[in-house]
C-alpha cells in the first residue's frame, strides 16, 4: 500500500492499526474520516476509502452523513470534500473556552486562597452546565462533571447566574426545571426563581444541595463588553463550609468575576 504523506511535514502518516469494536465501528470510522483532513485540505471519496480500507460506498455514506451536519462540505468546483462550518464553530467554541479559562486562572487562584473552596470556570452548553477548568478539590470537580449534573443546569449556580442576565436562557432553564419528575417540579421552579431574584439583589446566584446532596455553590457571571454573559466564576464545595462562608464569598465573587469580564472585553 502506498504511504500517505503529510503535506506540511513531508513525512509518511502512520497506518492505523488500532482494532475497532463492532459497537463503535461507525463512530470510529467517522473520526478516522476527519483525521484524513490533517494531511490535506480536501479529500475525495476514493482516497478516503483507500486510506481507511473501506468500500467506496461506505466512504460515500459517511461523507454524506457528515455533510448533512455541516461537519464536512463538498467543494462544487473539485467534487472533493473539505472541513465544514460546523466543525469550525466547534473548534472556535473549544478555543474560546480554553482562552476564558486562561484569562480567569489568576482570579480563580485568588478566590481559592481567600475562601478555601473550589473555584470553577462554568459555561452553558445548550441547557447543560460544563466546567472546563477548576482550582481546588478534585472530588468537587468530579461531582460537577457527572452527566446527571450536565442535564440539570437549572439547578446549578452557574445556570441561574447566566439566566438572570439572559431572558432566553431563563425561559429554557425554567422549562427544564418544570420538567423535573414527580412532585419536586414545583419546588425546582420555585428554587430557580428564588435564586434569580437573589442574584438581582446581591450579584451572586446560589445553589444549595440542588445539584447533589451536600454540595452547594455561588456563581457570578462573566460578561463581554456588551454585557452578554459568556460564563461564570463559580465557588463550590461541601454545603456546611460554603454556607458558613456565604458573606465572604458573596463579597468577593462579583468583584472577581468583574475583573475577569474586563479581561474578556480586552482580550
Please characterize this protein's 3D structure.
The chain folds into two domains: 4-83, Orthogonal Bundle (Arc Repressor Mutant, subunit A); 94-266, GAF domain (Beta-Lactamase), CATH 3.30.450. Helices cover 52% and strands 20% of the residues. The chain has helices spanning 25-35, 45-52, 56-68, 85-115, 138-145, 147-150, 157-163, 167-178, 185-202, 239-244, 246-266, and strands at residues 4-5, 12-13, 72-74, 81-83, 118-125, 128-135, 205-212, 215-223, 229-238. The strands form three sheets. It has a five-stranded antiparallel beta sheet with strand order 6-5-9-8-7, with helices on both faces. A two-stranded antiparallel ribbon has the order 1-2. Strand 3 and strand 4 (81-83) form a beta hairpin. The N and C termini lie far apart (48 Å). The model is unreliable at 1-23 (pLDDT under 50).
